[in-house]
Amino acid sequence: MKLDIEFYPKCIVCGETYNPNEVVYVCRKCGGLLDIVYDYEVLSEEIRSKWLRRTLSVWRYRELLPIKKDELIVSMGEGGTRLHECRRLKEYFGLRYLHIKNEGENPTGSFKDRGMTVGVTKALELGMNAVACASTGNTSASLAAYSAKAGLKCFVMVPKGKIAMGKLAQAIIYGANIIAIKGGFDDALKVVREICSKMRIYLLNSLNPYRLEGQKTIAMEIYDQLNAVPDTIIVPVGNAGNISAIWKGFKELEKLGIISEKPRMIGIQAEGASPIVNAIKNGKEKITPIGKPETIATAIRIGNPVNWMKALKAIRESNGIAEKVSDKEIMEAQNLLAKKEGIFVEPASATTIAGLKKLLDLGVIDKDEKIVCITTGNGLKDIETAIKFQKVGISEAEANAEKVKEIILRKLS
């Protein structure tokens, strides 16, 4: 059907469309994932001149965000994260170009804030009084914060004993109602989906296509910051919404005539939670879920990612690849990034650096490519893991300058 509106949800499988004023998460006809479609023909290349007059942020790209009522926008200044030129790290790897888009600089310390500013605003537009999510940590922290700002009741379901304390502390302090589910993330997501289908509570996992619209602005910011399209973008993959959202952002820039080429998308997963990598490497059209995913990178400890279809499409459309890395490689990469560039990221974020190293060793990435690694969460989210894997201990000394000098001399030698 043709809808007389500026945007609407559309099934990526069967093409069924829905009114944006109704609550719908997946296609009611075939169960497929939904995407938000815009009338790109009414927009033009001149749109970028409008964007450049605004502050670098998620809402700079207002014309491509699916909200009708500006007065309802719930924002905490998300987006506008820095694109770091990593001079020491690129020299270490022998690269010509390397940038890191550090999403840990968002208000609650992760990229999830980009999605929540749009998702929570959509909840208000739909007249919702409560929101919910399943989470390995960052989603719960972000939703709790934006719900608090919006004055909405917030319910978060987390896998019991499998969430970093820094993230849990955020959800607690922001006032979320926390329910620990005896099981993994996939079990928690199954429960929250059922709850939201039976109660008037708005689901804000990445299954919700409106949330992903905020996350696609990562692509737009990268282009505005570089004034160029990178050759390669490397992204951590858990529930797989982010890699597909970033790819959509670049595709929309192309539709608007702003760019004429797009990057290849590389998805990195942990070895113990890598259904998307397995599907790509084996040429499969569907993933085989992992029943009990295990990795130190809790943010991507997901065995059955709901956005797998979008992620496979993004990787394949972009002529990209997918790779898995071990927990040991992840922690070494976290340490390397911190010591070379002063950027402290959580383990899931470090997968991009671990993946970059592995792909360079395999000769899959050319050392002259323009590479952007996405780091998704701040290292302070999970300090327990960081401290546990550090080999350097803390020196002790008497309150005596000579004793301290002895230690310093040993360290300098």
CATH architecture heading of the domain at 83-107 and 211-388: 3-Layer(aba) Sandwich
Query: What topology, given as strand order, has the largest sheet?
Result: 3-4-12-9-10-11
**What would the principal axes of the Cα set say about the shape?**
globular
- The total of beta strands comes to 12
Beginning-to-end CA distance, first to last residue: 74 Å
Cα-based radius of gyration, to the nearest Å: 21 Å
Q: What is the succession of H and E elements?
A: EEHEHEHEHEHEHEHHEHEHHEHHEHH
Proportion in β-strands: 5-15%
Largest sheet: 6 strands, mixed
Count of helices? 15
Low-confidence stretches: none
Structural class: alpha/beta
CATH domain fold name of the domain at 83-107 and 211-388: Rossmann fold
Helix proportion range:
25-40%
Quickly name the level 1 CATH class of the domain at 83-107 and 211-388.
Answer: Alpha Beta
Q: Return the average pLDDT rounded to an integer.
A: 94
Structural overview:
There is one protein chain. This protein is an alpha/beta fold and 413 residues long. Among the domains are: 1-42; 83-107 and 211-388, Rossmann fold, CATH 3.40.50.1100. Helix content is 39%, strand content 15%. The chain contains 15 helices and 12 strands. The chain has helices at 47-52, 87-93, 112-125, 138-150, 165-173, 185-198, 209-215, 217-226, 241-255, 275-281, 308-317, 327-341, 347-362, 383-388, 401-412; strands at 7-11, 34-38, 83-85, 97-102, 130-134, 153-159, 177-181, 202-203, 232-236, 264-270, 321-325, 370-375. It has a 6-stranded mixed sheet with strand order 3-4-12-9-10-11, with helices on both faces. The protein has a 4-stranded parallel sheet with strand order 7-6-5-8, sandwiched between helices. Strands 1-2 form a two-stranded antiparallel sheet. Helix 4 links the parallel strand 5 (130-134) and strand 6 (153-159). Helix 9 packs across helix 11 (308-317). The longest helix is centred in the last third of the chain and has 16 residues, at 347-362. The termini are far apart. The mean pLDDT is 94.
